[in-house]
Amino acid sequence: MSASTPMLITFGIYLAGMLAIGWWASRRTRHFEDYILGGRSLSPTVTALATGASDMSGWLLMGLPGALYATGLAEGWIAIGLIAGAWANWRLVAARLRLYTERAGNALTLPDYFTHRFADHTRMLRVLSAVVILVFFAIYSASGIVAGARLFESSFGMDYSYALMAGAVVTIAYTLMGGFLAVSWTDAVQASLMLLALIVAPLAVIYVIGGPLEAYAAIAAAHPTRADPFHGTTVVGIASLMAWGLGYCGQPHILARFMAAESASAIAPARRIAMTWMVLCLVGAMATGFFAIAWFAAHPADAVGVEANPERVFIQLSQLLFNPWIAGVLLSAILAAIMSTLSCQLLVCASALTEDFYKPFLRPKASPRELLWVGRAALLAVAIVAMVLAWNPENRVLDLVAYAWAGFGAAFGPVVVLSLLWRGMTRNGALAGMLTGAIVVLVWKPYGWFGLYEMIPGFLLASVAIIVVSRFERPPADIVAQFDAVANDWQRLGRP
Length: 496
Prior knowledge:
Elements: H1 5-27, H2 32-37, H3 44-55, H4 59-71, H5 77-103, H6 110-117, H7 124-156, H8 160-209, H9 212-222, H10 235-242, H11 252-260, H12 267-298, H13 304-308, H14 313-321, H15 324-362, H16 368-389, H17 397-421, H18 427-447, H19 455-470, H20 477-492
């Protein structure tokens, strides 16, 4: 038995399990609403774990540990921003959005919510938001496929193009079969596996080195700058890293989890589970990358692959420190992280194409069964586009994620937050904010002015555009009444 055989067997068992969940979910998926929101039946635990898993993609086990390994603690500011942003998203957005989507025409997608929230009979909001979703999710989905290709390439010595195919096929298969239910239940399993890996891996590194104090001393001796959280940082740099947290309220694949919760009252327990999971995972990912500095400093011969591509640090440590069976389980966690986010992204794109283009413009009277199969075809088409974008082996996971995250955060974040908190917001204000946020990110990204993450100017200018434009008109009385009804529902439930 070769060293890679146990990992192959472990991967095979894991992938078979995901396909089995997909088949089970397909038996419970009868129409389009089931396919894209699972009949709004997610329990607090599944809602929490699925939200976390769909959020923390392959970058959690590859991009973030790689950044900590290459740069040191200065990259840790991103985790602080993410934790603060995620908590605010759960606290300010989650329950309100769950309540609003029911009152606003039983909205199934984010473009659908915008359309009904502002009574947009022109469908401009629906089309614009769907276009934004398709553009940035094509980039985001490509990041997941790249991460999967890196995993198979590093673990089994596969050619990048073949590795890319291997990493994407199973995800596409179970998402095609079972839709939202398959995605949510596989996400719950995947979140558990990710948490296990991010507890075991850093503890093993610390144990081998001799303890956390010894590891820190070794890092300070070998690379003193990496032990300093402020080395090479500026106010702009720290703000840019922490600004990742602003993006949470605009991510369609995360917001879809809130919309699918079984009730608004389920949000509070889901929030507690999700935040605990998130903090543990982020600390584990950072510890893995940081303490790996000490281990590879003591074993320079093993550091060649990691120095060439720091995003392989978790993969390399798993293969070097554990026997092949345990390594197979740990590396399956990377696959879990990749698949959990990729599947949700593909599903959201398919939902946008079906619910926001096909149904309103081509087949208004399409049956639920027809929409179900159109949704599956749309998902397959989006997956092919993402695979084409991911074909370049020079792509970096964190760079692709950062671009897409900023696009969604700036285009949708201010619109979502203000639509839930401000009764005076108008349709034209929403259009202005969405356009401003998307355009600023697309223009700012290539130039990187002032070294500032494009999320910040995009989010701020979009917020200003919404407020300024909305001040020129008054929202219709029925829209204000709907807003007040949702606010009363939220108060009545104890502000979950």
